[in-house]
Amino acid sequence: MKKLYLLIKDYVLIVVGTFLTALAFNFFLIPHKIAPGGLSGIGTVLYYLFGIPVGVTMLLLNVPIFIMAVKKLGKDFGFKTLLATVLLSAFIDLVKVPSLTHDSILASIYGGVLMGVGLGLVFQGNATTGGTDLFAKIVHKFYPLVGVGWILFVVDFLVVLTAAIVFGPNQALYALVSLYLSARVIDVVLEGLDSAKAFIIVSDHADEISHRIMTEIDRGVTFLEGRGAYTMQRKNVILCVVNRAQVVRLKAIVNEVDPLAFVLVTDVREVMGEGF
């Protein structure tokens, strides 16, 4: 019963999150030619150049990315991500609303904040909206030395640069404002203001928990040798660092395997190494 509740909760968060993200684009970003990186930014540029609906562009560009993701990352990367991607594209094209402001500065601020809230809820639902996130994971699979964050930065930078050429430098600067605000709000929605969290997990089921972490969220795990001071029993202590989109899922894994596990979660100010 608990698993069914959590599953329903995830899908509700995905639907609400994608809807709010679509409103951010339709209320603020698209009417003001603000292209905040990613496939949505590409869609905004193509919409004003050729009249192609933003959602259609996003969906068409996601198709080859999903095919590559299935081949390189396996089928476990998520039906929820596929659902979130389709819903976001559909909501952007089908939900017709007027722009709420004529001021591009206000549009970039409110659009970035609302987009951050929406994407944060999608992450809370253990999904992503596909696009450049999946593309970055695929590239990282081929070139492990290149971090996912750097790949996303390069893609977003190129999209914003293209927007600057097409719409002018002012709109590109507004896009950067939206990008920054959305990233910060996503952090707040999920786990505060830090981009990464370190988990120290003490459990009698360390092997099962570590296996699920490595297979389900693709994060490395380190075993630390521990011993209970009272029982003198030796056991493995799990050390794992995850990004903001994986915090909720890791907590769920620990709770599902061992509800009695002792879990310490701490903020990480800086992470260097594979995947960061």
Automatic annotation (TrEMBL):
<keyword id="KW-1003">Cell membrane</keyword>
<feature type="transmembrane region" description="Helical">
    <location>
        <begin position="143"/>
        <end position="166"/>
    </location>
</feature>
<feature type="transmembrane region" description="Helical">
    <location>
        <begin position="12"/>
        <end position="30"/>
    </location>
</feature>
<feature type="domain" description="DUF2179">
    <location>
        <begin position="219"/>
        <end position="273"/>
    </location>
</feature>
<keyword id="KW-0472">Membrane</keyword>
<keyword id="KW-0812">Transmembrane</keyword>
<dbReference type="GO" id="GO:0005886">
    <property type="term" value="C:plasma membrane"/>
</dbReference>
<dbReference type="InterPro" id="IPR019264">
    <property type="entry name" value="DUF2179"/>
</dbReference>
<dbReference type="Pfam" id="PF10035">
    <property type="entry name" value="DUF2179"/>
</dbReference>
<dbReference type="InterPro" id="IPR051461">
    <property type="entry name" value="UPF0750_membrane"/>
</dbReference>
<keyword id="KW-1133">Transmembrane helix</keyword>
<dbReference type="Pfam" id="PF02588">
    <property type="entry name" value="YitT_membrane"/>
</dbReference>
<feature type="transmembrane region" description="Helical">
    <location>
        <begin position="105"/>
        <end position="123"/>
    </location>
</feature>
<dbReference type="InterPro" id="IPR003740">
    <property type="entry name" value="YitT"/>
</dbReference>
<feature type="transmembrane region" description="Helical">
    <location>
        <begin position="45"/>
        <end position="70"/>
    </location>
</feature>
<protein>
    <submittedName>
        <fullName>Uncharacterized membrane-anchored protein YitT, contains DUF161 and DUF2179 domains</fullName>
    </submittedName>
</protein>
<dbReference type="InterPro" id="IPR015867">
    <property type="entry name" value="N-reg_PII/ATP_PRibTrfase_C"/>
</dbReference>
<feature type="transmembrane region" description="Helical">
    <location>
        <begin position="82"/>
        <end position="99"/>
    </location>
</feature>
